[in-house]
From TrEMBL:
GO terms for molecular function: hydrolase activity. Residues 13-240 form the AB hydrolase-1 domain. It comes from the Bacteria. Keywords: Hydrolase. This is Esterase. It holds the Pfam family Abhydrolase_1. The keyword Hydrolase applies. InterPro entries: AB_hydrolase_1 (IPR000073), AB_hydrolase_fold (IPR029058), Epox_hydrolase-like (IPR000639).
Amino acid sequence: MNLHYQVDGQGEAIILIHGLFGSADNLGLLARSLKDKYKVISIDLRNHGRSPHSDTFTYREMAADVLKVIDLCDIERFSLIGHSMGGKVAMAMTELAAPRFNHLIVLDMAPVHYHVHRHQNVFAGLREVARHTVGKRSEAETHLAKHVLEPGVRQFLLKSFAKTDSGYNWRFNVEGLIANYDTIMGWQEVPEFTGKTLFVKGQESEYILPEHRESIARQFPSAKAHMVANTGHWLHAEKPETVNRIILNFLQSA
């Protein structure tokens, strides 16, 4: 599994990992804020962006994919920043390479198994688009809107709708994501990681809740937490300056 990635800047290495349905570009505002002081590596996870597709999709496999990129770049120590599903990939990497971490920053995700199916409408919309021959993005949005009502969510998804040799298509592996959705929402606990860790929560998001504190403390006993007011799950897009400042402060002070 040879992931697609891009490198910006020089200095200590920071790896950025996007969430479900995303790509390396999703954390672009954060990458731009960090690249003046750090070497920033933005990764497309398997089944996303320009990376290869696969039928298997476990967090351990995705963590190993990312570690392979880090090794290819000849990087020994690094910091990891992951949003949502990418946060779980980052947390899973602590089991494979704990001594090599400088910092772990998890954006709005807990190390737990989620039991609420949050993406049924998205999958229905993606399949709706796939059922039609589409010649431009506006046509894709029309089909997508039958199931995905929020314009912002549609625009986010359409960032991964690209022209190929055989016409327009989704860059992510729609059927592979659907088949592995229980695994994506699930979680296998990792051994205790005592490195420098920060969880950043969107105040209005339901991905980190009070009932998750015990699981976080058990697996990441040294973790600190920061809440970003008046933001949801996409906190880094809703308040980029605030989130970027929180991250920079943690990287420089911890």
